[in-house]
Amino acid sequence: MRKKKNVEINKDMIIDEVLALDDSLGDIFLGFGMHCIFCHLGMEETIEEAALVHQVDVDFLVQKLNEAYKEKNSKK
């Protein structure tokens, strides 16, 4: 998997796009009780749409995704 270092994850990204950046970000979704990563909707649903369905604060979720992504990429 090819990782892009200077990407800012945002609420309009499709879940699959996020997982394509780094599949370990799936753990963040799971931590919020969002099993979208295993669902066919992950291929077409945005982070914001999924957060709404699961009653998750989208801004907090995006913050955690970015923190995890940046932390992992800063080690390289």
Give an overview of the whole structure.
The protein is mostly helical and about 80 residues long. The chain has one domain (about 15-75). Helix content is about 50%, strand content about 0%. It has four helices and no strands. The longest helix has 17 residues, at about 60-75. The two termini are about 15 Å apart. The mean pLDDT is about 90.
Topology of helices and strands:
Elements: H1 15-21, H2 26-31, H3 47-53, H4 58-74
Shape: globular
Number of helices, where a helix is a run of at least 4 consecutive DSSP H or I residues:
4
What is the N-to-C order of secondary-structure elements (H for helix, E for strand)? HHHH
Strand content: under 5%
Assembly type of the shown chains? single chain
Helical content stands at 40-55%
How many β-strands, per DSSP?
Answer: 0
Specify Rg, calculated over alpha carbons. Answer: 11 Å
Q: Class by helix and strand content?
A: mainly alpha
Low-confidence stretches are none
Average pLDDT, all residues: 89
Q: What's the number of structural domains?
A: 1
Biggest sheet overview: none
Distance between the termini: 14 Å
From the structure above, extract its key features.
76 residues, mainly alpha, 49% helix
What's this, in brief?
The chain is an all-alpha fold and 76 residues long. It has one domain (15-74). The protein has helices at 15-21, 26-31, 47-53, 58-74.
